[in-house]
Amino acid sequence: MRILHTADWHLGAKTDDLDRFEEQKQALAQVVDIAQRYQVDMVLIAGDIYETLVPSAEDEELFYKTCVDLSRDGDCAVVAIAGNHDDPRRLSNASVFSDKFGIYLVGDYGKIKIDKSKKDTNIYATNCGKGYIEFHTKAGEDCVLALLPYPSYYRYKEYKKESDIFEDKIKEWLDAGTSHFRDDTINITMAHLLSYASDMDEDDYLSYTTITGVNNFVDQKVFHNKAVYTALGHIHQCLAVNKDRNIFYSGSLINQYFSKCNDAPTNVLIVDLDKNGVQNIVKQPLEVKLLKKFEVNSVVQAHKVLNQHPDDLVKIVITNVDATDEEVDNTKYTPFITAADLKEIRKQHPNLVTLSVITNQAKETQEIASKKDLTTAEIFDHFVESRLGGDKVDPEVKELFLSLMSEGVYEAD
Asked: pLDDT per position in the chain (413 positions), as tens?
């Protein structure tokens, strides 16, 4: 059996007011082409289909059309779960028509429906229940897919008890589907949540901490050992949580965050597997725009960087603190930056998305502008130090704050 794992499409997302719809449309066309080229049996979309709970008609049309194209008239099962950016009820309501194509949209894991009449396709659903769908293929393989849309007490219509440990609740909610795993089936888990990876390098760790504080994760032990593959969404970088257990994030559809080291494309994962485990994994890159951030000291350097990266989307930060006259590429310039300079940069470079100027009088502005690049913990530290001065951060207060933020990530919708 062969699956394609993707996630975090975020249709409707903008990057600093830049509309990314056409890029997303082109990227999804590539996903359809890859699925057809590899003749996958199933496409797994692990949450955050949309950027907002109420997507535009244009975004919904693109999603539905893509799902139909991926389904190949029912020969490929398409299964999507709601992420924290998706309205679970809105997504589930669309399954009224989508299951006719072998497409299963799961917002409420307790109300999964299938069309049992479709049995003349390459793959079809044979059974379903709370948190799972079972499939059968013409090749004679049976697959149990356990599903966990974005978990929160509110969404799962449960009250939080004082004695509750959230990680235990995650496992309990997962067990609703994984309890149907059998030794003679291909067992797969799909979920939208945060879990720690094993042996992270520095860049991987940054991918985690830029999302939220480090207290918002669940241990990978919550995932059932009988799952031969676990498809995750929420992290925007293709990462292995555990290679030995085949627990992976596919990453996002397009790049959405500026980075000083953003030199990698986005990916989908093609996975060959049977009831004994994963036989092969291919990381298939997508041709998408890279988002790169550069810090320069002058307008001349800004022009130079933008000319060197015409195919990337670029964020320029001009740090003009205590600058003096300088010569760059045989051109002498003065450090003073005018409004006309900034207007000319924007006019000449369509690849420029964001332009910031940091001067000696704008250190506070620099701190505010860069908050999106900080972790929750770092924002807390900066706030306390700006109000109290010096090293005044109380570790216990900080831990309480991060704990409350962690709870909110999963419970506030």
From this structure: 999 999 999 999 998 888 999 999 999 999 999 999 999 999 999 999 999 999 999 999 999 999 999 999 889 999 999 999 999 999 998 887 777 789 999 999 888 888 777 778 899 999 999 999 999 999 999 999 999 999 988 888 888 888 888 888 999 999 999 999 999 999 999 999 988 776 665 555 555 555 544 446 788 888 988 999 999 999 888 989 999 999 999 999 999 888 766 667 899 999 999 989 999 999 999 999 999 999 888 888 899 999 999 999 999 988 865 555 455 555 555 556 778 888 888 899 999 998 888 765 544 444 444 445 555 666 777 777 766 665 666 666 766 666 555 444 444 33
My answer on whether 106 and 230 are in the same domain is yes
Same domain, 253 and 353: no
What pTM was estimated for this model as a whole? 0.81
The answer to whether residues 186 and 136 belong to one domain is: yes
- Cα–Cα distance for residue pair 133/400, rounded to 1 Å: 39
User: CA-CA distance, 230 to 247, in Å (whole number)?
Assistant: 5
Residues 206 and 144 placed together within one structural domain of the fold = yes
**CATH code, 143:** 3.60.21.10
Query: Residue 78 to residues 66, 92, 234: CA-CA distances in angstroms?
Result: 10, 14, 19
Total domains in the chain come to 3
Last residue of a domain, one of 258, 285, 312: 285
Where b means 16+ CB within 10 Å and e means fewer, 228-256 reads bbbbbbbbbbbbbbbeebbbbbbbbbbbb
With a CB cutoff of 8 Å and minimum separation 6, the contacts of 337 are 298, 299, 318, 320, 357
Element housing 14 (H / E) = strand 14-15
Claim to verify: residue 86 and residue 197 sit in the same structural domain: yes
| Token duo for residue 199 | 């042996």
Range of the domain at 254: 2-285
* Cβ count within 10 A of residue 290: 18
CA angle, 69 as apex, 14 and 46 as ends, to 5°? 55
Q: Hey, is 280 helix, strand or coil? A: strand
